[in-house]
Amino acid sequence: MKNAPPPPNLPRQAGQGQRPAQGHFLTRLGFFLLWLFHWLPLGLQAAIGNALGGLACLFAQRRKRVARRNLELCFPEKSPAEIRRLLRQNLQATARAALEHGLLVWAPASRLEKLIRVEGREHLEACLGRPLILLAPHFIGLDMGGVRMTLLTRIASLYSRARNDIADRHLLHARSRFNRTVLASRHEGIRPLIKIIQSGLPFYYLPDQDYGRRESIFVPFFGISAATIPALARLARVAGAKVVPAVTRQLPGGQGYVMQFYPAWDNFPSGDLEADTRRMNAFIEERVREMPEQYLWTHRRFKTRPEGEAGLYD
Questions:
Q1: Which residues in the chain come in under a pLDDT of 50?
Q2: pTM metric for this prediction
Q3: Which domain, by its residues, includes 264?
Q4: Quick one: residue 160, left, alpha or beta (phi over 0 = left, psi -120 to 50 = alpha)?
Q5: Which of 203, 251, 265, 281 has the largest count of CB atoms under 10 Å?
């Protein structure tokens, strides 16, 4: 068996100190195990991931509480038993996707092309060569879709450094090892993003998280006012870009993933920033209802509330 190839060396962030030796050891051990797992057939990896997800139901109490609360808020019509079942499925899908990240770091392109099927490719190809934003909601197959995109064409995306520098090197390597992917920092502002989009590189964009009150507007998501960054419409307007949704679905067992491209949105942006942001959230909600076990429910999507409204996670 070959030795696991080292990830690229990256400069340490200013002010980032040395991490405890024990933390380094555990992180290296974790990635060594991922490297071992990536040699296994996908069906066996899926079975192990589902088992780990079952254990997470017992031990990952904080994530479990957040996910359960989100499911209760978004699906009030479901019974407690249905919420528990959906929660378990979500933790299993999340654990499986985490385990399969080893494939993104070390598997050859030929294996990834078989693992991650592409559907609706004509919608992507119709917009290539012009400013293009790929709307990629936070489903658990998000990284699978992002790496699959880099096998189709050169792309750009945002990148936030992981807190652990070893994990950061591996994740950055996975996202940039094909086709010289351009990764822009979230902290550099909007101007570099506009230049990247206008250059013709498809921009793989993840806009559906709660980033706080600053620059957010409140629009419905599952009938709940959710703080949402309206940057999709702003970027599309300033860069003159088309928006093509790209959603990645995890398939059962050893069947892999499907990355689905949707038709480019007509009349977007419309000139009404709130209406455009509502449209984005409504589209994401429709996809969530199609596969509710695969959304990022462990994120506190509703943590920022309108003035005077009580918190939803207390």
A1: 1-20
A2: 0.89
A3: 21-294
A4: beta
A5: 203
